Amino acid sequence: MEAARTVPSMVTHNSRSSEYDLYLQDESKFLTFSSQEKSYCNGSLVPLNNGGIFIRNLILDPTMSYKSRVHGGESLFDFFELNEIEEYFQFRKGYFQLLCRERPTLHSKSKSLISKGMEAIRYLDKRDSTKLVKVENSPTLMIERIEYSNLYHAMTEWYNVFIVLEELNLKDHAVNILFVDKHPRSILDDVWKRLFRRIEFADKLSSNQRFVHAFWMPSAYKSAMNNHKLVNLPYVEHFRSFFLYNFGFNDEISTDLEMINITFIWRRDFVFHARNQNGTIQRKFANEETLLLATKRAFPSFNVIGIQLEKLSFTDQLRLITGTSILIAMHGAGLAHVLFLPRGSGVFEIFPKYVNSAGNGHFRAMARWRKLHYVSWRNYQSRNEEENFKTRIPQEIVLNYIKILYWKMFKKEIPYAKLV
């Protein structure tokens, strides 16, 4: 018979102890969020339902990793001559240490932080307190980011963190985010800081630390947000509210407005990754100005703009999106902003001939989870595909789909000027 699962004991904060379990004020919460597998190490190592692992009193020894020429957070240009492998940790045995008389064997098929961490962990029969310099009492979420500069994949990481905060009642407490990677600085770093405040790179730690409450976060690829077949995404509106609140926005905006705002997102060449130094971006509009002018003429009472999101701060991106009634864009990471559109708004996603729309349901799923109105169109005509990954979109296609979305949103037709 399998032994009963053990959960971390509750510790009361008092003048003699600074160790206390913020998230175990309701022990049933933790039990619900933890996996059905048994816990290990007398409750100090617990698999979680989100694919992550909770570890109590995890020791990190920064001397036990192979060094590279970067530590994380440097300028993108410092990475141009580096192999991508230098952006990821290569652990020696003992980088992580845990007081444990068992020798748990938890395996992961993917080369994630969890699989590499389990290989690097050294189990101790007794703690050598002489080697510890710092004790971190605040919950620390350890993350190895993937596609760190891609808004969609970053959104799945932010959602993963939010789920832990929500499930364990940590939203009102200070938490640490520890990047267990060495990626360069990106335009999304400020978003991490706005949402979670305390951000550190593991490779910049100079001495041993004991993390009283550590979470190894699952890969973003394992996020529920990446499961596009889900009918509903847990906490999606709570996540949206949390996100907007941290940027100072009201989440009660709706599309019941006198002015209809149509926003085109333009994809243009832009250097955002060390492995794409020429900045070539796929899935671009070949006829931006034509589409913009045609839409303004067809719907003169609407406010119509086109924008390259990278030219705006993230705060300004949110300001634009939360005021958008209909969002039009090529399939791409910028459409992750669907999560922040007003309730009841519309989304028009466009695919070039060389992208399979059926296999790329990221933003169709987001629109479904938020109960937004969604339409899509894929080009099948080779003559519309131009050099440098540009696609010419017939203006009548765009105008007709705007009409369809308006009907879905308001159940009435709009004045529609004929094409000139």
From TrEMBL:
Coiled coil: none
Keywords noted in UniProt: Glycoprotein, Glycosyltransferase, Transferase
The organism's place on the tree of life at top rank: Eukaryota
Glycosyltransferase 61 catalytic domain location: 232-347
GO molecular function per UniProt: glycosyltransferase activity
Family matches, as InterPro entries: Glyco_transf_61_cat, Glycosyltransferase_61
Pfam families noted in UniProt: Glyco_transf_61 (PF04577)
Protein's recorded name: Glycosyltransferase 61 catalytic domain-containing protein
Organism for this UniProt entry: Pinctada imbricata
